[in-house]
Amino acid sequence: MADREGRKHLHVGGQxxxxxxxxxxxxxIATAVRKPAGDIVVEASSFVSLTKKHRILNLPIIRGAVxxxxxxxxxxxxxxxxxxxxxxxxxxxxxxKGSRKGxxxxxxxxxILAALVLGFVFFFYVPLKLTEWIGFEDGLxxxxxxxxxxxxFIFLYILLITRWKEMQRIFEYHGAEHKTIFAFExxxxxxxxxxxxxxxxxxxxxxxxxxxxxxxxxAIFILLGRPETIGExxxxxxxxxxxxxxxxxxxxxxxxxSVKRYLGFLLWPGLFMQRFTTREPxxxxxxxxxxxxxxxxxxxxxxxxxHDHPDDKLVEx
Length: 317
Prior knowledge:
The radius of gyration is 20 Å and the shape is globular. The chain has one domain (4-305, 310-314). Strands 1-2-3-4 form a four-stranded antiparallel sheet. The chain has helices at residues 4-8, 50-53, 62-86, 94-134, 139-162, 167-187, 192-196, 206-224, 230-238, 240-254, 257-263, 268-277, 283-303; strands spanning 13-17, 20-25, 28-34, 40-46. It is an alpha+beta fold. Helices cover 65% and strands 8% of the residues. Mean pLDDT is 80; it is low at 90-102 and 301-314.
């Protein structure tokens, strides 16, 4: 087991799930969920990013796109696990549980597909059509207004989901995740009491990353000019992975202490938006987040070098 100082330098990432938290370290991933009966169930497994296995995938920009896909896949897996156990009733039999597992997996797949389609439509296609409808001809002004529309849509989306009562619990677990990571990074040892004193907003949260993506998309789309044909519009959409990769590099650089004072302003809007996407958690919720992190640390601390900075640590939920 690494010493306390080594633990402090072992960076982690995570996300909130249904009645739980998923945590990820350089070599391990774990999801902890509070079941209706009150006990905590944990699923943990080894996972090493493809960017660590294949040198070509660790090249700048490419690695950002790879990490985003991996993060999405792991998020789906964690959500499926949490949905299965968070909605489990004590009186259910094994047969019912198995049936429910299949149904929840199918429903999760449909939900994710619908979310991807709606996300593409509302955050890329609709802003583009609205800007075209207004009639801007100048490429610089066109893409700037297009980006403003995307920012407005994202802000409205976040405000909308904050009105969803069921999301409040996830926002609380989101806060528990951030508090636990903060406590681990600062102290190396975590208890619900020590974690509770830290803020719920974290600079590596995907909320910050999402806003950086919008800013980067404006810059890249300006270089592409005003789209006039269907082919030019398609090219813009094909640049989405590039935008994600560049945004990842910007977030990665802005997190370095040596440049944080110059690029740290890019994180301010995301920190502000986390006022809407995080809530103050209870001690029980922090306990769940700590259970997920400890399940990772049982293997990771021994296996990974203390100075390792995994790519995925920069993108949290």
